[in-house]
Specification:
alpha/beta, Rossmann fold, 2 domains, 5-stranded parallel β-sheet, 14 strands
């Protein structure tokens, strides 16, 4: 039986996780064979292990660029001009949040001409999450506008579909009914929360009574790749001994985010997705120069309380909870996608159209997120502070 070949181009673990949500729409179709490849990338060190865990067929990059495929998917632009296939490009995070300032690479990451026309070649389709992106495409790269498809956001849809499972996720984490979960989130880069963890971590350990609060750290996979897993675990080893959970990069962070009672974040995608959960927020950092001013991240930076270095952390969490206004955060979350709940339908239709095949005769289902791994056991007396 002749099967059509679909190539997933996995530059980094972050890109790979986004593609898995898309590839799930092809499950059960015996007419298709999905294979993977990993182009060279500065943050691609962990990709081979990621693909090994999947048990996937992996083509060396040099071989993949010499073959022809019926469809290719990529969540990043690097090197994809060498792929011989109808190519769909899509963002790897929430919206287009980050701005590159200065130099030849200046612009909004993901919406620069070099991102949209890699190697000067237009892809078959450019997937965007929101109608607002069409205005930016019309201004900055109008030749791509006819190729743009507003499909929505897969992480948004899986998070919202999984919100009713919050209690189950909290049980899986091992949280007691009276305990509150504080999740500290970091994107990557010099201005990320991780760059200030040396100031934040002692506060999470020393100021939050361990009988009432548990803490978890969600660190961007690029940080793990850039410094190495050994170094990250070495830096944070004492935190783990005191009961703080370091969520590994291969785990699904989204269920941990849903379980949170508070989120301490920055200008990255995970923090923005936190607006879907109902958890009050504090921003440890929100560098204006690095934020796309027309993005929902800019709206969140202007709205969420900023973490103060001088006031007690418990008081700040209480303040964030008192000042939390669900309608205001919902308005920010609504800017993530203009197709809420419809990514699977829209994306599957696009892929099968480019494949020249009829879709399977069933509705694509948004599968709830898996349960998170349990938090490390809290040992009484370690890191405990009296209320």
């Amino acid at each position: 039986m002749g099967r059509k070949k679909v190539l997933a181009v996995v530059h980094t673990v972050t890109y790979g996780k986004r593609l898995l949500d898309v590839l799930a729409l092809l499950e059960g179709d015996f007419r298709l064979q999905v294979v993977f490849t990993a182009p060279p990338h500065a943050f691609g060190d962990d990709v081979p292990a990621f693909l090994t865990r999947l048990g996937s067929v992996v083509l060396p990059w040099e071989q993949a660029t010499r073959m022809t495929f019926d469809l290719a998917l990529a969540a990043g632009p690097r090197g994809v001009q060498y792929i011989d296939a109808p190519l769909i490009t899509l963002p790897h995070g929430a919206n287009y949040l980050k701005r590159v300032v200065g130099g030849a690479n200046a612009g909004v990451a993901g919406l620069r001409r070099r991102d949209l026309l890699p190697g000067g070649r237009p892809p078959a389709a450019v997937v965007v999450p929101h109608l607002a992106e069409l205005r930016e495409l019309a201004r900055d790269c109008p030749e791509v506008l006819p190729l743009a498809h507003v499909t929505g956001d897969p992480a948004h849809d899986r998070i919202t579909a999984s919100l009713p499972l919050r209690a189950a996720y909290r049980r899986a984490l091992g949280l007691a009914d009276e305990q509150k979960l504080v999740v500290a989130v970091s994107t990557w880069g010099a201005q990320s929360s991780f760059g200030r963890f040396d100031a934040l971590l002692p506060r999470l350990i020393g100021e939050l009574p361990a009988t009432r609060y548990r803490t978890a750290l969600l660190v961007h996979p690029n940080v793990w790749s850039g410094h190495g897993a050994y170094q990250i675990r070495s830096w944070l080893a004492r935190c783990g001994e005191l009961g703080m959970a370091l969520v590994p990069p291969e785990a699904d962070w989204r269920s941990v985010l849903i379980a949170a009672d508070w989120i301490i974040g920055d200008h990255g995608s995970v923090t923005l997705y936190g607006t879907l959960t109902g958890a009050p927020m504090l921003l440890a950092t929100s560098p204006e120069r690095e934020i796309n001013p027309s993005s929902p991240a800019a709206a969140l930076a202007a709205h969420a309380p900023a973490l103060s270095p001088t006031h007690p952390l418990v008081d700040q969490l209480d303040y964030a909870a008192r000042e939390y206004r669900p309608d205001e955060y919902a308005a920010i979350a609504a800017r993530i996608t203009s197709e809420p709940g419809r990514f699977n339908r829209n994306m599957r239709r696009l892929m099968y159209r480019l494949l020249g095949m009829g879709q399977p005769a069933h509705e694509p289902v948004t599968v709830p997120l898996p349960e998170p791994p349990p938090l490390p056991a809290w040992v009484p007396g370690r890191g405990e502070v009296s209320a």
